Amino acid sequence: xxxxxxxxxxxxxxxxxxxxxxxxxxxxxxxxxxxxxxxxxxxxxxxxxxxxxxxxxxxxxxxxxxxxxxxxxxxxxxxxxxxxxxxxxxxxxxxxxxxxxxxxxxxxxxxxxxxxxxxxxxxxxxxxxxxxxxxxxxxxxxxxxxxxxxxxxxxxxxxxxxxxxxxxxxxxxxxxxxxxxxxxxxxxxxxxxxxxxxxxxxxxxxxxxxxxxxxxxxxxxxxxxxxxxxxxxxxxxxxxxxxxxxxxxxxxxxxxxxxxxxxxxxxxxxxxxxxxxxxxxxxxxxxxxxxxxxxxxxxxxxxxxxxxxxxxxxxxxxxxxxxxxxxxxxxxxxxxxxxxxxxxxxxxxxxxxxxxxxxxxxxxxxxxxxxxxxxxxxxxxxxxxxxxxxxxxxxxxxxxxxxxxxxxxxxxxxxxxxxxxxxxxxxxxxxxxxxxxxxxxxxxxxxxxxxxxxxxxxxxxxxxxxxxxxxxxxxxxxxxxxxxxxxxxxxxx
Length: 493
Prior knowledge:
The protein is of the alpha/beta class. The protein folds into two domains: about 1-160, 3-Layer(aba) Sandwich (Leucine Aminopeptidase, subunit E, domain 1); about 180-490, Aminopeptidase. It contains 13 helices and 20 strands. The protein has helices spanning about 35-50, 85-100, 120-135, 165-190, 200-210, 220-225, 230-235, 290-305, 350-360, 375-385, 395-410, 440-450, 480-490; strands spanning about 1-5, 15-25, 60-65, 70-80, 105-110, 155-160, 215-220, 245-250, 260-265, 265-270, 310-320, 330-335, 340, 370-375, 390, 410-415, 430-435, 455-460, 470, 475. Strands 7, 8, 9, 10, 11, 14, 15, 16 and 18 form a nine-stranded mixed sheet that branches. A six-stranded mixed sheet has the order 1-6-5-2-4-3. Strand 5, helix 3 and strand 6 (about 155-160) form a beta-alpha-beta unit. Helix 9 (about 350-360) runs parallel beside helix 12. It is elongated, with a radius of gyration of 25 Å.
């Protein structure tokens, strides 16, 4: 996809199709970009015949409209003008792409982005337009050899008035970089686990680091052993794929600026270990590295934007498989922090690799640490697939992440992290158990991680319900790259 900002009047554009929003009152969205009177009247006369209601997501194609050189006009319904919000706007953009894919067009001029949306400005409109177009156009067909889909691409001109030009161009740059980061996160998640191994993730991190001038380290098993990451290595024992510990540093801020640290869970396939999962839908456990993928996607975005910030990505990555050497229920591990952990369920492995990464993060004297993990099925039961679970030991950090989620429409909901829950992790034989029972499973998982994050401001995002979709729409979503990027950008102000 190619996107450009234009300030010319639409009738001067030589595109294949002009996209115009229509409210259910049949009012057209063209603002001060005065379409020719004959064009407006012609469209209005057609709408009066009832061929289109203006209902959100509806569409209608018009041909050879007078007063304009563009041969086709695509009308997209926006619903009630006063009720147009981000969700309905996203639906309208997706309806536009759905219609365009059926048309023989290459160049598009759009007026959708000048619609008046609740609590939004032209920058927000442009950013979300671009990201929704890229999201709706995404296809994963890299490994198909027959009936391979051909991705349709367009040159899209977004028309704005002159006073909005610079704002819109800056928004376009940001949104395109974000879209590329989300695209990378989706592709990494969708790759099969025989390709997307810990070694593969390490190589991908090296590519990103080299492309954007970042410092990159990919530690192997011997180096991990020297760090005494006994908890992480305990999980990795059941696999023939060697574990990797990835550290990616974007050091473009002031030397005095404490870094933001993102820690991503990188279980490239999770069979559950000895506590093996049921066979049904086990293929979706390739998505258990979506936390790691979201960190790499965010680094892709901040690299493209060359943000003047200090951001560090930490990714512990391995497989969790059953084997004669695999971790067993009843085993006790010694974490990098020195705390001991009784393993009661080997399928609660994400917290076992993250806890060592959280201890490792201390050496960077961070401003904040945010871990991202497809951690618990319990979070899916609690919040479904709409919001990621958010836990934090710092109220301001939690509020900032919630705000970033609202702005990016990649929302998270804060959950309790009360001391009351900590006792569920009591063990007769070690400092703690790795599970706290069925009750409050997502909360006790966060409580476990909190024991390794006491030396800094920390937040945990449980993305088990938001990182991928099942069924006919099966595939990685790219979340929460939008939330993370928006949070980092907010720290620049």
